[in-house]
Model the fold of this input.
Amino acid sequence: MLKPFLVLSAVILFEIAAASTPAPTLAPALAAGRMAQEAAPAPAAPASTNPVKPTPALQEKAKKLYARDCAICHGDNGNGKTDLAKDMQLTLLDWTDPKALATKSDQELFDAIRKGKGKMPADDMGRAKNDDVWNLIIYIRGLSKGQPAAADKPSN
Ligand code: HEC
Done:
């Protein structure tokens, strides 16, 4: 007899708390934390592994994003030899050289794009979702291998 009443008042209390605290996301976050503790700890994926799989459609999207947000400094082909780079006296790597990004991890590139680096502005969430950034990284790494379309052309 008492139990339903307790549950009900707990719900009401929770709702009052949720309505009056400025951070109503706290409760779900706490619950999620509890669940994570109960669940067997899944091995964390290595941070440097790009979680997205390239598809032609996603790479097409990345190409557009690159043209919109990145090419102005890094160049259409990624060689970094742009007027703006010259004007801003930027020191940019030449991504058409396979060696340029060889020693950098995906995570490093991700952080540079997400948070910005030196004179490079961050591409914030409003402009590119995390998955967009991961796809951009695949796209950028691909610049040293030539555009996908270039494979169709006969190499003389
Ligand atoms: C205003 C010019 C500018 C724009 C726009 C810009 N970058 Fe950069 N980017 C830089 C500069 C400068 C660096 C070197 C920063 C440093 O090492 O101090 C850099 C570095 C990077 C790096 C780290 C690896 C490297 O080559 O040094 C990545 C990855 C990168 N940019 C990706 C992007 C992507 C993707 C975009 C578009 C979303 C973008 N950048 C837009 C100027 C720019």
Remarks:
- The helical segments are 2-20, 26-38, 56-69, 71-74, 83-87, 106-115, 130-142.
- The chain is about 50% helix and 0% strand.
- The first helix runs from residue 2 to 20.
- The domain at 56-147 is CATH 1.10.760.10 (Cytochrome Bc1 Complex; Chain D, domain 2).
